[in-house]
Amino acid sequence: MTTKGTPGRVIRVDEETWAAYGEVCEAKGLSRAADLRVYIKREIAAYRRQQRAESQS
User: Fold this and answer.
1) What are phi and psi of 24, to 5 degrees?
2) Which end of the chain has a smaller Cβ tally under 10 Å, C or N?
3) CA torsion, points 22, 27, 33, 37, in degrees to nearest 10?
4) According to the model, what pLDDT value does residue 1 have?
5) Tens digits of per-residue pLDDT, 24-34?
6) Contact at 8 Å (CB) between 22 and 30?
7) Does 4 or 18 have the greater pLDDT score?
């Protein structure tokens, strides 16, 4: 499960949710993997902003 040099990850998601998520991602023009990467990077950035703000207080 490796593409473009990135390791594959395994997550557990029920079939109904996974299928619906596939429809959402298709409507957005993204693969599920690309959408998950966007979400993960956004969460990391938000966490880091929060940590910086708390350390400056």
Assistant:
1) -60, -50
2) C
3) -130
4) 56
5) 999 999 999 99
6) no
7) 18
Residue with tokens 């998950």: 36
Residue 6's φ and ψ, nearest 5 degrees, are -105, 140
Beta bridge partners of 3: 6
Q: Which residues of 4-33 are buried (b: 16+ CB within 10 A; e: fewer)?
A: eeeeeeeeeeeeeeeeeeeeebeeeeeeee
Are 44 and 51 contacting, i.e. CB atoms less than 8 angstroms apart?
A: no
The contacts of residue 1 (CB under 8 Å, 6+ apart) are 7, 8, 10
Counting DSSP H helices and E strands in the chain, the numbers are: 2, 0
Residue 56: both structure tokens together: 């400056």
